[in-house]
Amino acid sequence: MDERPTLDDIRRAPKVLLHDHLDGGVRPSTIVELASESGYEELPSADPDGLRTWFTEASNSGSLERYLETFSHTVGVMQTTEALARVAYECAEDLAEDGVVYAEVRYAPELHTRTGLSLDAVVEAVLDGFARGGRDHGIKIGALVTAMRHQARSMEIAELAVRYRDAGVVGFDIAGAEAGYPPTRHLDAFEYLQRENAHFTIHAGEGFGLPSIWQAIQWCGADRLGHGVRIIDDITEREGPDPRLGRLAAYVRDKRIPLEMCPTSNIQTGAAKSIAEHPIGLLRRLGFRVTVNTDNRLMSGTTLSEEMAKLTEAFGYGWDDLQWFTVNAMKSSFAPFTERLELINGVIKPGFARLKWHRA
């Protein structure tokens, strides 16, 4: 009897999501409605189904330029407090429907100020949407405020993260093209966050290799790595029974530095060739602190349940593996320690136990 979890089974499991972009998960129908309300006239299609198809094709085109173009449309309609609060609320609703019990969702406040909103107004609108969505749908969402690594506003955004950390912002991030924009360009922001005892993750090891990961950890002090896929470059003899870890890979594993991996997105951006060849398989086998994430649910046409189902199919994972990924994520979250323990022991482990018992 095959006890491998099905997609429907996985949807019922209590899951944890650490790497999800707010502007990468907007409903196509919402984009169309917000465009009509705001007078945004640049959508490639005014039909929600046609727009969804366009996003999928653009994201899988192999063209980075076309992939990045997709975000111009989601960000383009997220320029009012009402729009931001709605998108955040719907994000909470969609994640809860997929069985996510805790999520950290990131966005760059500086991208939502084109019509005159202040950074504070942007943050407050998103927090309002998350709070209402969380109450209505039984999910806890913490916000990560992101600075764009090619801009020079990281200190402002870091101060924003600290200013709102008691109101729902759980941490800070930098995102954008890695090549040519190393994390050390924002060292002052990271040093400020460390002085303020604040949490932060850094996009590293996705579009650029080991130097990006090394700088994020050793210079900037990242708590987690956004993606971190290219840590595989520091592991040799991968096909043998005893893969050899380089100094950096060994350090990442020894220090239990969480890797926020997003399998489908990693394939779209060229960081991995296929699900079956994704580094997550080897890294899980070697005991790295790996987590499974969605990155951009709209662009990748995915959910967290679907990401886990793909890994189950590719690597033969069972309930114990999926629980391992989930506990990893909850342990690695920026939620308070007591909240992490309550969710692990009171929700996640009992939830997986019920599913395993039901399938037994």
From TrEMBL:
<dbReference type="InterPro" id="IPR006330">
    <property type="entry name" value="Ado/ade_deaminase"/>
</dbReference>
<dbReference type="InterPro" id="IPR032466">
    <property type="entry name" value="Metal_Hydrolase"/>
</dbReference>
<keyword id="KW-0378">Hydrolase</keyword>
<feature type="active site" description="Proton donor">
    <location>
        <position position="206"/>
    </location>
</feature>
<feature type="binding site">
    <location>
        <position position="23"/>
    </location>
    <ligand>
        <name>substrate</name>
    </ligand>
</feature>
<keyword id="KW-0546">Nucleotide metabolism</keyword>
<feature type="site" description="Important for catalytic activity">
    <location>
        <position position="227"/>
    </location>
</feature>
<dbReference type="GO" id="GO:0016787">
    <property type="term" value="F:hydrolase activity"/>
</dbReference>
<feature type="binding site">
    <location>
        <position position="203"/>
    </location>
    <ligand>
        <name>Zn(2+)</name>
    </ligand>
</feature>
<dbReference type="Pfam" id="PF00962">
    <property type="entry name" value="A_deaminase"/>
</dbReference>
<feature type="binding site">
    <location>
        <position position="19"/>
    </location>
    <ligand>
        <name>Zn(2+)</name>
    </ligand>
</feature>
<feature type="binding site">
    <location>
        <position position="21"/>
    </location>
    <ligand>
        <name>substrate</name>
    </ligand>
</feature>
<feature type="binding site">
    <location>
        <position position="295"/>
    </location>
    <ligand>
        <name>Zn(2+)</name>
    </ligand>
</feature>
<keyword id="KW-0479">Metal-binding</keyword>
<protein>
    <recommendedName>
        <fullName>Adenosine deaminase</fullName>
        <ecNumber>3.5.4.4</ecNumber>
    </recommendedName>
</protein>
<feature type="binding site">
    <location>
        <position position="21"/>
    </location>
    <ligand>
        <name>Zn(2+)</name>
    </ligand>
</feature>
<keyword id="KW-0862">Zinc</keyword>
<feature type="domain" description="Adenosine deaminase">
    <location>
        <begin position="14"/>
        <end position="349"/>
    </location>
</feature>
<comment type="similarity">
    <text>Belongs to the metallo-dependent hydrolases superfamily. Adenosine and AMP deaminases family. Adenosine deaminase subfamily.</text>
</comment>
<dbReference type="InterPro" id="IPR028893">
    <property type="entry name" value="A_deaminase"/>
</dbReference>
<feature type="binding site">
    <location>
        <position position="176"/>
    </location>
    <ligand>
        <name>substrate</name>
    </ligand>
</feature>
<dbReference type="InterPro" id="IPR001365">
    <property type="entry name" value="A_deaminase_dom"/>
</dbReference>
<comment type="function">
    <text>Catalyzes the hydrolytic deamination of adenosine and 2-deoxyadenosine.</text>
</comment>
